[in-house]
Write a structure and sequence with these properties.
single chain; alpha+beta; Phosphorylase Kinase, domain 1; D-amino Acid Aminotransferase, Chain A, domain 1; 5-stranded antiparallel β-sheet; 14 strands
């Protein structure tokens, strides 16, 4: 597919203008994988195509569920065509089970504590400050989003979580938590950016030791060829599992 001029580049994707439609962009998923705010960086050949495939499956499911997203199509595995958005500098994290950073921040909460409805937290996208948590009041005070938009993100976020949780549960996989982002297009909030295997914790059979997500890479004491091959195999498995999201959504 022909690409327009490059607009911006991040750790795991490059954004290009669409050559024919100003309201669209083209996202190329890169083979890079990072952890620790970019302190750990590696390349996994084929990861970009797997990330694009997973993202396309997830966003197709969300679109079919009536959730407004920026996703338009995936003409190639590593390319995503999407609506052009002004991205909000926020990460919206929904947690079904307490684990990871949440338990470290809240040692009084036991590992595996269930949140019903899912707990929603906001984090400011700022690698230098290590993506600090930000309150709903601070978001509005800094004019990052209106109070109404904050509530909309919470509501939509839980709809996204419920949709993906059900899709994963159909394959006996527990969706533990999920990170999404939002953008504005013509004044409306859309679920945007990517949702791939870097975006969630997923535990087959509800067993943490069988995790399939990026946490495997984060947890590795050192990274060698064997670790990267193992991570790639899990990403390939997840892409194949999410193919069922599209098949069952028809």
């Amino acid at each position: 597919m022909q690409l327009g001029p490059k607009l911006t580049e991040g750790k795991t994707k490059i954004i290009y203008a669409h050559p024919d439609d100003h309201d669209l962009i083209i996202m190329r998923h890169k083979d890079g994988i990072t952890a620790g705010d970019g302190a750990r960086r590696n390349e996994i050949p084929g990861k970009g195509a797997l990330a694009g495939r997973t993202t396309a499956n997830v966003f197709t499911l969300l679109n079919r569920a009536g959730i407004a997203t920026h996703f338009v199509s995936a003409p190639e595995p590593e390319l995503t065509v999407a609506r052009r958005c002004a991205m909000l500098p926020l990460e919206v994290v929904m947690r079904r089970l307490a684990t990871g950073s949440y338990v470290r921040r809240h040692p009084e909460v036991a590992e595996g504590t269930r949140f019903d409805p899912p707990l929603v937290e906001f984090f400011l996208k700022d690698d230098i400050a290590h993506d600090p948590q930000i309150s709903e009041h601070e978001i509005a005070a800094r004019s990052l989003a209106t109070p109404a938009e904050v509530q909309q993100m919470i509501t939509i976020g839980r709809q996204v979580f419920a949709t993906l949780e059900a899709a994963w549960a159909a394959q006996d996989v527990t969706l533990v938590d999920l990170k999404i982002e939002f953008g504005r297009a013509h004044g409306a909030l859309l679920v945007a950016d990517v949702i791939d295997n870097d975006s969630w914790r997923i535990w087959p059979g509800g067993e943490k030791e069988r995790m399939l997500d990026k946490q495997v890479y984060r947890n590795a004491a050192t990274v060698d060829a064997a670790v990267l091959a193992d991570v790639r195999a899990r990403y390939e498995q997840v892409a194949a599992l999410t193919d069922a999201f599209v098949a069952t959504a028809r």
